[in-house]
Amino acid sequence: MTESLLKPAFGGPVEGSSSDGAPVVVAIDGPAGSGKSSVSKAAAQRLGYGFLDTGAAYRALAWHALEHGADTSDATAVLEVFGDFDYAISLDTSDRWVRVGSADVTAAIREPRVTDAVSGVARVAPVRHAVNELFRRLVASAGLPGVVVEGRDITTVVFPDAAVRILLTAAPEVRAARRSKELTSQDAAAVAAALHKRDAADSTVVDFLTAAPGVEVVDSTHLDFEQTVDAVLSVVDSTMGARDGR
Ligand code: DC
């Protein structure tokens, strides 16, 4: 993996909101279909923070592996293609893109063939280690007051000291129904089966269904999108308020 493009799409530094000038990190974890990606992005917009979708890195690596004809269920093959994985992502909520080398893969990484392959690459421990380091560097060098970082094990492994840590959950049937609405080309039963399979595969690597101590749970089962964003922002507000002695 090269470092040259590992820069967020933001210009000069702005004053950080945390006491040491580093961006405030709002870490959001949760299973597939909990709405964490769209909710995190909307929360970042309302806070005036950047947004880091960490799953995009694993998806981009899966895309890269498929481009090379690598078997994504073979850890050795994944590590081999990881060697020249030249990844870049924007943290700007109004200008989002993901690149591998000169290829803009923003849309391609959402294709079902990539979704089907991604658990294989996300399971490779040395990949996770390197990618987690990359996330920390991206956030530290963002030059932003804060960044909402979303993805599996973000509240526990990647940013255990984040100012705000949230586990966004929803009942499995609600998550499957939301996913099938997003993917209009696939029927609900197939989506539910794929989601269940991916949860099971992912949960062998990271525990994303149980909140670690200090992590606030937001259950969106009975909330619509706006209510979920409000619930997340209210946790941010109360946690930051307590931290700042408000
Ligand atoms: O959130 P998503 O569907 O874009 O994530 C894609 C895959 O990457 C999914 O299998 C979970 C995995 N992932 C992970 O293991 N750790 C992360 N921090 C983010 C995503």
Automatic annotation (TrEMBL):
CC terms in the record's Gene Ontology section: cytoplasm
User: Which InterPro entries does the record match to this protein?
Assistant: Cytidylate_kin, Cytidylate_kinase_dom, P-loop_NTPase
The record's catalysed reaction(s) read: CMP + ATP = CDP + ADP; dCMP + ATP = dCDP + ADP
Its keywords, alphabetically, are: ATP-binding, Cytoplasm, Kinase, Nucleotide-binding, Transferase
Chain ranges of the Cytidylate kinase domain: 26-236
Task: Give the chief site where it resides.
Answer: cytoplasm
**One Pfam family from the record:** Cytidylate_kin
Q: Where in the cell is it found?
A: Cytoplasm
GO molecular function terms attached to this record? ATP binding; CMP kinase activity; dCMP kinase activity
Entry EC no(s): 2.7.4.25
Q: Which domain of life is it from?
A: Bacteria
The record's listing under Gene3D superfamilies reads: P-loop containing nucleotide triphosphate hydrolases
Task: Provide the residue positions that the database annotates as binding ATP.
Answer: 30-38
Instruction: From the UniProt record, give one GO term of the biological process aspect.
Output: pyrimidine nucleotide metabolic process
Look up keyword Metal-binding and say if it applies. Answer: no
Q: What family does the database annotate?
A: Belongs to the cytidylate kinase family. Type 1 subfamily.
Q: What is this protein called?
A: Cytidylate kinase
Q: Lineage in the entry?
A: Bacteria, Bacillati, Actinomycetota, Actinomycetes, Micrococcales
